[in-house]
């Protein structure tokens, strides 16, 4: 059952500057001071210069439903950072930097993560699962998993939030071309 949203936001393409309040965003394919790039015959490799977690990590794969995305609850991890990255097609994630036991609707922002992008959520950042653009989409996460710690999903105060992906928005340049390149039709 879908609930009428109390607030509507537009997902923006993730950039280091836009994401800085929630953690770190690295555009691996763009290179730069945070990326080490190597090349060989028929391949190129791009990795983060520094460890993204600072602790041993576990790799997971989640399949997020297609947008439209309605965020009624979010989770956070107080014991680990969490890296999110695409498995081959763009995804949308909602985040909030709210202290306390529940994320607040006024703090929620949403970002499109494209192949080659990595976001590293700081400890304590509220976040939704990632969701695909137009179809269910798998994505990877890297975090320190501890089965003795329960990850709680808390309702969004003042929510739910409806997240739109505005394909005409200049903040998401070329997203239709990108989606087609990664095998998605929107």
Sum up the structure in keywords:
five-stranded antiparallel sheet; 2 helices; 41% strand; 6% helix; 186 residues; mainly beta; five-stranded mixed sheet; Jelly Rolls; globular
Summarize the structure.
This protein is mostly beta strands and 186 residues long.
How would you characterize this protein structure?
It is a single chain. The two termini are 24 Å apart. With 186 residues, this protein is mainly beta. Strands 2, 10, 11, 13 and 14 form a 5-stranded mixed beta sheet that branches. Strands 3-12-9-15-6 form a 5-stranded antiparallel beta sheet. A 3-stranded mixed beta sheet has the order 1-17-7, with no helix packed on it. The mean pLDDT is 85. A hairpin with a 2-residue loop joins strand 4 (35-40) and strand 5 (43-48). The protein is built from 2 helices and 17 strands. The chain has a single domain, classed as Jelly Rolls, CATH 2.60.120.480. Helices cover 6% and strands 41% of the residues. It has helices spanning 16-19, 175-181, and strands spanning 7-10, 12-13, 23-27, 35-40, 43-48, 58-64, 69-71, 73-75, 82-86, 91-96, 108-113, 117-121, 126-127, 131-132, 137-143, 153-155, 161-164.
